[in-house]
Each structure stands twice: as structure tokens, then as C-alpha cells.
Amino acid sequence: MTDTPLSTPITTESTFDNEKPPEQITRTTYGHATTTLKAAAATEHGFTPLQAIRTYWRAFGWCMFICIGGLLWGYDSQISGGTLSVPYFRRDFGGVYNGQFVLPARWQSALNSVSSIGGMFAGLSIGWVADLIGRRGSVGCACLISISAVFIQFFTPSHVNGMLLAGKLINGFALGMFVSTASSYCSEISPLALRGITTGSVNLWIVIGQFLSNCVIEGTGKRTDSYAYRIPFAVQWLFPLILLIGLPFAPESPWYLVRRGRVDAARRVIDRLGGGNVDVELMVNQIQETIALEDRDKASTTYLDCFRGTNRQRTIIASMVFVLQQLSGVIFALGFSSYFFQLAGFSDSNSFRLGVGVTAIGVVGNLVALFTVNQFGRRGLFFWGMIACSVVNLLVAFSSLAPTSSGRWASASFTIIYNFCYQIGIGPLGYIIFAEVSSAKLRSKTVGIGICVNSLCGMLANIIIPYLVNPDEANLRGKVGFIFGAAGLLGAIWTWFYIPETKSFTVDELDILFEAKVPPRRFGSTNVADVVVRRDGEGNGNGSE
């Protein structure tokens, strides 16, 4: 088989012949692309995470900058549940029940789920937006939308609940754009050794946002005026402004630039991100050839393509990681933590402090995960994370059966343990896996679908859980842990069979594994070179390259 020289990029026009049958096109394409893709893969596999950070510290830094949008997602999700623990908020937007101010369950459900509705629409539109104006342009649009939405929330008069919901709905759209774009951006500008760390950092920033939200609520929640909750709303203005200031200096994704035909601009970005210490032409050729391989059927894409052929499996995996997060009970254990502590009998001040402690432990867990994700891989951490969260949910439920002080403190302790287990496994791994399993061609669309599913599941959880927890409804309180404990164990079974190991595979290597229909649970034990040899062997009859 004749290999293409490193200096010769593969283009769609020169590589593919429309008169050949599809299977022959596939075999020929992999053969021509072998030299460049193998050389690029060898280069990427040669980096350790520490070496990659030293060489690509600029790329790492810009990933962390773009991930600030994830902070806003976490802040908003936590502020919804956190404001429920603020007496003055319940006074201004709720009513009196058994001598205390309570926000009715229907408004709790609406308040906690409306951002998810906005996120769903963002997930459905971000693929088109990101492919049209780029990753930087998408973040800029999200910043402007978020600033306007927070303005509506901050100036909402008391008992005008509909206006508050409108602000959160609009902000939810911006938040969905932030997280979708951050995941795609990190996956596309990071070298292989840093891809798990940077994409997992999306969740780290989400947890930092949750921690910041609880700190702000702890500091303002005891005020006896409307600024007890207006100040937490206003803090959200800070981070879009930071992003808008830095965006003009941020590099665009080279994958996006190549797809738009701006190859010289992509070269400059790669050279800048690598500090002049990388083989720019090799990296550009890798992008061109991977795109050419994925474009062999047709150059344009639609959302329907995410559900055709092998992309269907990739889209299901990218979506299911977020379904599994909700089955593990994350909204129950974390989103309602401060409010849950109050219902369990803790004072307002202790509830605030426990809420801060829960999210602080989550930050620690995420930092640990960034070190373990390359060491132990994606699949194992996600699977054992599901098991651990299920067990802790059951322990929370059993503790709640004892209406004593020790039982309440046990439930609180298990909630903190839950967050550590979740953030060391399921939390960051979800964002890593869904960004890695998508093809380069459909990444923005697949990631958008994943965020849409994430928002949909979050919305359903936020609608249902208040009716299960609230004293004026089912009043199950901590016993809801029985439900999520059982659901999480079922999710762990699905994880075992269908979550692949994506560690140490380049984009084109993952393409090969999915197209060869290797079972997801066997990705980690499969030699990609053997898969290529078998495919090439079908074309030349001797199994050699």
C-alpha cells in the first residue's frame, strides 16, 4: 500500500472518487491517511500531561478562561436552590404555610427548571451558531444574552414571579451556550495528553460556581431586605464582563478555522498555542485529513446526521452520560442541599454553612479527578462513581428514617460524601466523555444535543424533586435517596456495557474504533493498529500495509 507523504495534505477533492463504492472509498481513504495520522498520533502519545502543560501552557490557559462560562452554569443552578433557603426571598415570592414562609412546590419547580428549558433551546441551536460564527463568537453572544437576563432578574419586583422566571429562562439559553462551547473548545485546542484535564475542567468550573453561589448566599442570606437575594443575582454580571474583555485576545479553534477554509489562520493559532515548539504542518495536516475522512460521504452536516450510522451510537453515549448523572440523584443531593438541611431541622446559619461545605468538597473532588482521569481512564471512574453515589444515596435514605439529631447529622455527612464521590467520578467524566466521543465533523452538534439532554433531565428533576421533598407535598425528605439509589444502580449496569474508554485515543483513532463497530466496553483493550490492518487487508487481500 502506498502512503501519502507527510508534506502532502489530504483534501476531499484529491482523495475521494464518487464513482467508487462506499466501502472502497473507506479503505482507500484510511490507507492514504495512514502516514500523517500515525505520525500525528505518535507525537501526541509522546506527551505526558506535565510535558503537555509545559509546551501547551497557552492552550491550557485559554481553555481555563473559556471554561469561566461553566462557572455561570453552576452558579445559576445553585442559586436557584440556594435562594429557597433565604427567608426574605420566600417572603417576597412565596406565602405562609404552618407559620413559616414557603415557596409553593409549583413555583419551586418552575424556578429550578426554567433555566434548563433555556439550556435545551441553546443545545439545539449551538451547533448551527458555533459552526457559523465560531467558538469565540458563540461565547460573546452568550455573554450579551446573560448580562441582559441578569438585569431582568435583579430588577424583578416582589411577587412578580413571572418576570423572574423570564429572566432565568433567557439566562438559561446563555448558560447552555457557555457550556456547549467550552466543551467543544477545550476538546479542539487541547493536545491529547491535556484533553481529559481541560474538558473535565468544565465541570470543575461548574462546581466552583456552585461553591461561589453558596458563599454569596451564606454572606447575604441573613439580610432582612431584598438585597438578601438581589446581591447574589448581581454577582452574575461580573463573569460575562471578564469574558468579553478577554475574548478579543483568545485564539479561535483551529478545527473551526480549517473547516472554514482559513488554513493559514489555523497554522498561526497552532503555532501560537504551542509557543513555536510544535510541528505546525503535521498538526494542520492531521486536522485536514481527519476532516477529509469524515467528509467522505458528504461535506455538509445536519442534526439528523448525529443519528445516522455510527454517529447514532456516539450521540447516545454523549447524551446518556447526563441522563446517568441525573439518575445518580445529583439534583436531590446537591441542588437542594441547603434547603434540605433546613427541612431536616438545621438552623438557617448551619444550613448555609453546610451548603458551602458540600460545594467546597466538590471542588476538592474535581481537582483530584483532574489528576486521576489520565491515570485510571474514563470508563472505570465513571462506573465506580455510579456505584458509590448509589450506595451513598441509600445511606442518606436510611439515615433519614431516624428523626433524631444524630440521624440528621448523618444525612448531612453522607450528602458531603456524595458530592466528593460524584465530583471525583461522574461529574467531570460526563463532560470529558461527551466531548470526546463525538466526531470532529459533528462535535458542535453532538455536544449541543448532549447539553439539550442535560437540560431536559435537569428540568424534569427540578420539577419532580420539590414535590417529593416539600413538607406540603409528599414530604419524603431524605427518603428520596431510596429512589435515586435504585436508579443509580441500574445506570451503573448501562455504564458497564455502553460507556467506552476514550483515554489516549486521538480523534481519528476514535473514528476508526466506532466505524469498526468495536463494542464500547472493549475500546480500552483494542489495538487501533490491528483494526486498521484488518480494514486495509480487506482492500488489498494480504492484510499488510
Automatic annotation (TrEMBL):
InterPro entries referenced in this protein's UniProt entry, alphabetically: MFS_dom, MFS_sugar_transport-like, MFS_Sugar_Transporters, MFS_trans_sf, Sugar/inositol_transpt, Sugar_transporter_CS
Region (Disordered): 1-24
Annotated Polar residues bias: 1-15
Recorded GO CC terms: membrane
Domain Major facilitator superfamily (MFS) profile, first and last residues per copy: 62-503
Reactions this protein catalyses: myo-inositol(out) + H(+)(out) = myo-inositol(in) + H(+)(in)
Transmembrane annotation, as ranges: 56-75, 110-130, 137-156, 192-213, 233-250, 316-340, 352-374, 381-402, 414-434, 446-468, 480-499
Family of the protein in this entry: Belongs to the major facilitator superfamily. Sugar transporter (TC 2.A.1.1) family.
UniProt-recorded name of the protein: Major facilitator superfamily (MFS) profile domain-containing protein
Species assigned in the record: Tremella mesenterica (Jelly fungus)
